[in-house]
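Checked the freezer inventory, then went back to the computational side. Two predictions to log before the end of the day. The first one is the construct we discussed on Monday; recording sequence and tokens without edits.
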Amino acid sequence: MTRPLIIAIGLAAIAGASSAVLAESHHHWSYFGEGAPSHWAELDPKNAACGMGKNQSPIDIRTHDLHPAALPALKFDYKPDALHIIDNGHTVQVNVDPGNFLLVGDRHYELVQFHFHHPSEELVNGKGFDMEAHLVHRDAKGHLAVVAVLLRPGQPNAMIDTLWHYLPKQKELQVDQKAVRIDITALIPPDHAYYSYTGSLTTPPCSEGVRWFVLKSPRTLSQREIATFAGRYPNDARPVQKLNGREVLATK
């Protein structure tokens, strides 16, 4: 897969097929001021869903409203990968070589990239977490699935330490360290129980139709690892969006 220098946090329109993994080449949207989330829909007609969409992400997951369901298990088929890291102006993102997969029942998704938010975008019973990782996958038809991993202070994460060691000094310039191998499974908690709902990208153009899997168990990072990211991005989280009657499912 050709690797553009600017691959978006959220990828791009689901219904738009091939445009699903490419970002805007200019960063006129942001998390503050005139480019803040409340203005995203005004910045570009392509961002209409950011204001008018009814299935937007992130959300506040209220566990007392959920009913356990017989959902398929998440099966992660990840292997050590060369490091391709970029600060794209909105987050730190790691682009992934082909060959890493998520299996959900009979659905087969390939991991494209993962990136981070500080603080978390998803809330659970009104509570946020220090950070959140989004692992963005795409199936053969271009449909997206995002695995969200909530991150809290605790034990350090050696893989995160490696990422932060190679943080690019220049924005929008991908750094390739082919001799450095990262273990992406270090982001995944041992317990794969999850919440699931249909939502959207959490960045412009806020395209809907994204399948979300929010892992119930958080992973830990050290306070220093959290502070390193927060030093670059004090707040790159979109506020929670209205549920609008959507069903949120949870594994038993």
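The second is the one RB wanted added to the comparison set:
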Amino acid sequence: MLAGSDYLDRLIGGDVFQSYLSGADYHRWHAPVDGIVRHATVVDGLMFSNLEWAGYDIKGVKSQAFYTAVNTRGLTFIEADRPALGLVCVMPVGITEISSITLTARRGDRVRKGDQLGYFSYGGSSLALIFEPGAINHFTVDAPKNPEKQTIPIKVNAQIAAGN
């Protein structure tokens, strides 16, 4: 659908920040930057999928990257007002029975950092942020030492990275 588009091509080789949302977590997502929504769409995909080699992966931690490729997901591309940040993609991903991605931001909308972009109707899912190469200087959130047993809560609208 978007393969070969300028939107996707600009993100190749960039940084990805992906988080897991348990059923009890907040299930709305917000703009990480000020800017203009260039494109917003939902890509239909699978449900209840896990990587076979991951074995019994009840939390889905080992399958996170797999989910972004095959499960139902949203794609909201925002052209950041700050040129050094370039294009940012916000990708909510439905996991297990969650394929209820509702986008509330539309193409052409001006969004401010923290504005709602969409929501899931039911818990347990993932959210990935994808940045252009060179846009991120460093991430400010540490990865858990053992992601299968530990999670590090991130507050809504908290800083996750510092840009160049």
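For RB: The two ends are 31 Å apart (CA to CA). DSSP finds two helices and eleven strands in the chain. Let me know if you want it refolded.
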